[in-house]
Amino acid sequence: MAKFVLKRLLGSAVMLFLLITISFFMIKLIPGSPFTSEKMQAGSKQAIYAYYGLDKPVYEQYFLYLKNLLRGDLGVSYKIRSVTVNEVIAKSFPYSLDLGLKAIIVAIVGGLALGIISAYKRGKAIDAFTMILATIGVAVPSFVVGFFIQYLFAVKLRWLPVAQYTSFAHTILPTFALSLSMLATIAKYSRASMIEVIYSDFVKTADAKGLSKMRIIMRHQLRNALLPIVTLLGPMIAMVITGTFVVENVFAIPGLGRYYVTSITNLDYTMIMGLTIFFALFLVIMNLLVDVVYILIDPRIKLS
Amino acid sequence: MKRTVFVLAVIALVGLVPAFGAPTSQKIVFADVVEPISLDPHIGNDNTTTTAITLVNDGLLENFGGKFVPGLAESYTVSPDGTVYTFKLRDAKWSDGVPVTAQQFVDTYVRMLTRQDAMDLAYLIYPIKNALSLKQNKVDASKLGVRAINPRTLEITLEGPYPFMKALFASSPLYPIRVDLAQKYGKDYGNAPDKLVSCGPYVLTDWKHGDRLEFEKNPTYWNAAAVKTQNVEMLYISDANTLKNMYETGDIDFCVLPPDIIPAMEKDEGFHYYNSGAVTFLCFSNKGTSADRGKIIQNRNFINALSRAVDREDFVKALFPSNLPFTGVVNPSISDEMGGKWSDHYDVTNKYHKVKANLAEAQAFMSQACKELGYASADKMPVLEMITTEGELNRTVCEYFQSIWKQAFGLQIDIKPLAYAQFWDNFYGAPYDLARSGWGPDYDDPFTYLDMWDSRGGWNKTGWIGESYYKLITEANKQSNMKKRNDMFYQAEAILLQEAPIIPVMARRGAYMLNDKKIEGVYFNMFAPNLDFRFAKLK
Amino acid sequence: MRQLEGELDFTLVGAREGEASQILRPHLSYFQDARTRFKANKVAMASLFVLLAFALMTIAGPLLVPYNYQDGDLLQANKGPDLQHWFGTDELGRDLWARIWIGGRVSMAIGVLAAVLQGVVGIIMGSVSGFVGGKTDLVIMKVVDFLMAFPYLVWVTLLMLVTGSGLVPMILALTLTGWLTMARIVRGQILTLKNEDYVVAAQSLGALSRRIILKHMIPNTMGVIIVTMTFAIPAAIFSEAFLSFIGIGMKAPMTSWGLLVSMGMKQLYNYPLRLLIPCICISLTMLSLQIIGDGLRDALDPKLRR
Q1: Option in B315, B390, B400 nearest C247 (CB)
Q2: Is B323 helix (H, G, I), strand (E, B) or coil?
Q3: Would you give per-residue pLDDT tens digits along chain B (539 residues)?
Q4: Which of A204, B1, C26, C122 is an S-S bond match for C183, by CB 3.0 to 4.6 Å?
């Protein structure tokens, strides 16, 4: 196991390095710069470029960036002069992490629960509800969902706060908005696989033997149902990351996703680089963890 | 095992959140769609940044409800020729106990002119004697026209009797800072409560970057008795819809509205229009993206044709119901320095450019232009490129012109929306044909609209050089008789409208939400900060 | 047992000539069988009709009205749906019916083109990788792993920032980042099939690799390919909508459903139709594609063959 982890870490380090290099040069290719503004005076641009070292040849900037990177210094945001990229990540990441974690838990638990219950109560109201929710989650673009539920639940019904992330109640709407599409997928699949199982032979046999249906399902099928979800975990994390771009914006949550979008609009090079690297690093670590969990759960998998 | 997972899940679900904040108490909550750039007054003067800076800082003068009242200076005198201001500073202190002294002002302005990293705002103090020369390193700092006669007397000498200096002294870029701390903290100055001291009504207690700023009443403020609310919060709400929603639920008390949400809030309680003083215009470059295009856009008849084909009234009614058609350069609601507004005595409406379109005249101009340039008709001309900053509204504006001119002349325009930063890069550097652009006034004086077209420096990147123009405005600024000065400005404006490659389009208004029933003591300003709530109180 | 007493009276009938080798039902090829099963899936068929209806509207819709999507008549601005403008007009006086369907063309075109191109690139990379094996396989798979390790939209965003916005850059960006799934799937299939007897037989008979790939492997992989491509279409449509929404997708004067949704959101309070109509269009299109994809997957699943 340890060898596996080590090998993966090494491979990931190489890939990360490639990513950094590719992104760095790609960002240099983007036209425009973060410093121009309406009231720019002649000569200001050169001076500012010199100050930030942007007038040096590109490869020199690259090595300087790498050098700083090794010290853990991701640079200063060009647009928001008041804060370094490291500070931004340190302050914003907990919000995104909390939101993302909650969304994944809600998606898995909610999806499984809804899927199982509707399979069990096939054709009843709960089944219809699940199918409708699943349809919405799959078809309606995620950026619209947040907007609608904010309007409905926060403004019209006043049940929940409109935006920000300062109490538990504040987390409900954004979590739901972020988790909806994943919840829908998990609900659909677990419902389908549950239906297969409920009407399958071995359950009928166990049932005939006198075991309670619920117990059977829980003991036999849940484990099997969890496995595909673990495989989905990797892509789900990636989906959550991109989902935060919009959800954090709509609900005014000071997380990394919102910074990413604004830094793109502002052409804030260092911020874009820093956040890209961070997302990548995060995803790599998460994928590794997921694979480890997968191996731990399913003894059949070989470490090849 | 399952139970552990379950427990962990519950903890995660409820978990980290309490760390994020406490329930709100009675305080003023303000929100904006961007964050302040910094609390260092010399880095930015957009509305959001200025609003935050005026909470923690104060200037020689203060703009209070449109009047310039004493701030850190309890009184001042002006020399007869209007070029020397002598300020008597009051007994004010910074929040760390250090007194406010005249030398701090000297150091501040020197720093403004000599710092390397953020010189965007230095131009605002060029009216001070030798400021430009100091900036260009032609003289040394001791020659700057700012002198500390004694710790409580400050003397500022100007290059000329610029009457708008009063307004400038009350604006945030001229606020003093503690240069000793700025040097100590470097670029971190102003970014956190421990890297800033305040001489204004509030102190910064927390700045959660990307989220909010929190302020608390400053007990050492010289006018602390007038500050009625203990706590202020400034939130960063990037989505305009969310801003609207938060206002409707009462989560925020007032805000300036981003333009695209104005129509949606027009009917809401507490909606107010304001004249922002900003103007939108189209300008043509001298060079163009190719030699033949350059010739076309320099042709006066071509420019007139394009201008005459636009019905500014229809345009405004359809796209910007909150704005007003505009055919001049100086915004009518700017001060005339004689106690009134520019429009009291001067009106250039319909003199050179017209509010209503006239297709016949436009087409006559165009055929004249075609004759002079050697094209059979406008649709034979090469496709011109129009650059603009991105955004739905800007794009729509360009599309409007594109279709009007196509229908009128068959002229073809290609729209090129550029990211904000890229647009200004292009505007200053790369060749362009047409640009949709605008300007916001820096201070309450007509000169703010006129000095930008001075080709000797600054903003004018059209390539147009108006010698008679800048001679005229330089003369005008030497006048101490305001009427004479304004007359000369008016002449200069006429020159611009007839010779310069610009087409004025509209004067912009903005809107803000302020529920007078819930809060009192909030003043509106045409200049940043648009909403002054330093002495406001919730009812 | 009791009931059968006395009724148990079996007589020997014997075998009837010729019946043993009678074919009880017609032989169906794989695809014919799949088609039948798909047709029986009522929900999937309904979705197919919905999808075709939308596709038809995007082609024919703009032709039904005399307005085009770009030119606006300001005097007609901000009208609600009426006999002249079936969906009303926008703030520039442009006809919304035309804009919706032109936008649909863009969204669907991007969806289909991106999915197809992703598929083609994926098939080529996957089959080369799987069939040739060895170093080539290793290199290609390393590239796939690398690209897959990072969020897809991050790649697309970077690409679009560099290339600028527009139809071609977007399709390019989506293709360059979206071929990975298809490549992996095709490679997997090829690896499985490589060891099948008939392939080994063909190889020993001297058949060229290319011939083997084209004539044997790909047709057998067709099912998976079709299903994967079908699911790739709504993913591409969503990506386009998302990118346009955050501002790096399509720009003026082009329009797309994603852009129309983003514009509509700001005007929900005054002109709700401007958000609802494009939203419904995207949702129904994506939904029907998902259902069709599910249906195709079930139909083409060899395990369900009867």
Answers
A1: B390
A2: coil
A3: 556 666 666 666 665 544 444 444 478 999 998 888 889 888 877 889 899 999 999 999 988 776 788 999 999 999 988 899 999 999 999 999 999 999 999 999 999 888 876 556 787 888 899 988 888 888 888 899 999 999 999 999 998 888 778 888 988 889 999 999 988 988 788 888 998 999 999 999 999 888 899 999 999 999 999 999 999 999 999 888 899 999 988 888 899 998 778 888 888 888 998 888 888 889 888 788 888 888 888 899 999 999 999 999 988 887 787 888 999 988 888 877 777 788 888 888 888 898 999 999 999 999 999 999 998 888 888 899 999 887 666 777 888 888 889 888 888 899 888 877 677 777 777 788 898 888 878 777 888 888 778 766 556 667 778 888 888 888 888 887 888 989 999 999 999 899 888 899 999 888 999 988 888 889 888 777 888 999 998 88
A4: C122
Of B538, B519, B448, the C-alpha closest to B162 is B448
Taking chain A, what is the end-to-end CA distance rounded to the nearest angstrom? 11
Residue B47 tokens read as 């509305």
Q: Which residues contact A67 (CB under 8 A, 6 or more apart)?
A: none
Residues A240, A175: contact at Cβ < 8 Å? Answer: no
Contact by Cβ (8 Å): A183, A142: no
What is the DSSP secondary-structure string of A4-65?
Answer: HHHHHHHHHHHHHHHHHHHHHHHHHHSSS-TT--TTPPTTHHHHHHHHHTTTS-HHHHHHHH
- From the candidates A162, A256, A297, which should be mutated to test the interface with B, based on the most B CB atoms within 10 A? A162
Does C246 touch chain A if contact means CB atoms closer than 8 Å?
yes
Closest residue, chain A, to C143 (C-alpha) = A15
Distances (CA, A) of B285 to B255, B309, B463, B502: 37, 20, 6, 9
Angstrom distance (rounded) from CA B401 to CA B387: 12
* Contact between residue C93 and residue C68 where contact means Cβ atoms under 8 Å apart: no
**Contact with chain B for residue C12, Cβ under 8 A:** no
If one counts every other C-beta atom within 10 angstroms of the C-beta of residue B179, the result is 18
Q: Does A221 touch chain B (CB under 8 A)?
A: no
| Alpha-carbon torsion angle A249, A255, A260, A261, nearest 10 | 0
Q: Chains near B, with 3+ CB pairs < 8 A? A: A, C
CA of residue B336 relative to chain centroid, distance: 19
Contact B138, B129 (CB under 8 A): no
